[in-house]
Hints:
By secondary structure, this protein is α/β, with parallel strands linked by helices. The protein has helices at about 5-25, 45-55, 65-70, 95-100, 110-120, 150-160, 185-200, 220-225, 235; strands at about 35-40, 60, 80-85, 100-105, 125-135, 145, 165-175, 210, 230.
Amino acid sequence: MPSVAEIQVQERLNEVQERIHVAADRAGRDAHAIRIVGITKSHPQEFVRAAHEAGIRLIGENRVEEALPKRANADDLADLEWHMVGHIQSRKARTVVQVFDAVHSVDRSKIADRLNREAGQAGTRLPIFLECNVSGEASKWGWPLTDEASWPEAAEEFTRICELPNLEVRGLMTMAPRVIEPERVRPVFQRLRALRDYLRQAVPGDWSELSMGMTEDYEIAVEEGATLLRIGRAIFGPRAIG
Ligand SMILES: *Cc1c(COP(=O)(O)O)cnc(C)c1O
């Protein structure tokens, strides 16, 4: 018998996937090129299993302390990939490398260097995304790259990060500001894509992935080129905290 969590997650995921398909059609995109990272933060362990049962293979968490036991308790689900999406303190870089398969929230050079060092020690190569603040909001993490004039300097910094031997840069990530009208985040997603297109010309590497779009705005993100959607509440329901 499926649990209540399993039934709810499957129903919600069906609706999200339907909406992704419709948005992809509107934009003339192939919906298969768009993957969901199910954000299970602050939801109990059973939601990880429910997500897997429903067909989700990428799980996102924003705190290493929470992800560590969740991953340990789901180690029989070997085809799950664990993605870090939250800000990382330098002293936690080692645990992050141990717990996660990919990091979306590389938001400064120093943490790239630390992750590179720890991945080297662990004998792995860590897929990462460079988190960029392209909304001009003061409170967000990431490289502040709202102004195009700042892009050439970032390209130099990113070139160096792309050369770190134990990291594998896959693309860019952004957090859109919380707004009442989702349509207002569209220019933010457009700017992240423009930045990616600029980097493609300026920095050798794989810039194929755009990690953008959450519960409130994932359909707009799809229309604007997202390849990874980080979706929590639309699939797992409201969170008590966080
Ligand atoms: C919580 C979180 C999400 C998911 O947010 P929802 O609004 O629940 O979809 C996505 N990305 C990051 C970085 C988050 O912290």
